[in-house]
Amino acid sequence: MSVKLAFWLSDVSAPGRGNFKVVPGSHRTNWIDGPPRRNMEWPDPAGAIEVCADPGDVVMFDRRLWHARSLNRSAITRKAVFFGYTYRWVAMRDAPPAGLTGLTDVQRQLLGLLDGRAVEPADAGDHAWGHYPEDVPLYGWLRDNGHLDPAYPPLRP
């Protein structure tokens, strides 16, 4: 399972406002035709649709769904916040944000910045933070600040 959520801050309730555009069913294929060269106009894939949303709406979709933004031909500035969720053993696909300095290990873990890992890559197993709670910065922070319920079996040390 790997999903993305788009939180709409601006009004994209009509087409042509830089809407989120998807190709329904495209998560079942590994290829969509595009231009033969980068300097050519990219055609809309067959069946592509613009998703309309009001400010405050959230669109949840499978990350494998082919998606893009449409052209914004309106006077409205398109604003949205996208979040991705997947299991921690799934590798990050997006480039980490540039210019982030002075982050704690917990902040780096939550942002998916692997340079702050608590274990060496060879010892990490199926994800970058290791298999054991003591190797995971967020777990340590929760434990140290009294936010773990020892009655809950998955959180027992």
UniProtKB/TrEMBL annotation:
| Pfam families linked to this entry | PhyH
What this protein is called in its record is: Phytanoyl-CoA dioxygenase
What organism does this protein naturally occur in?
Luedemannella flava
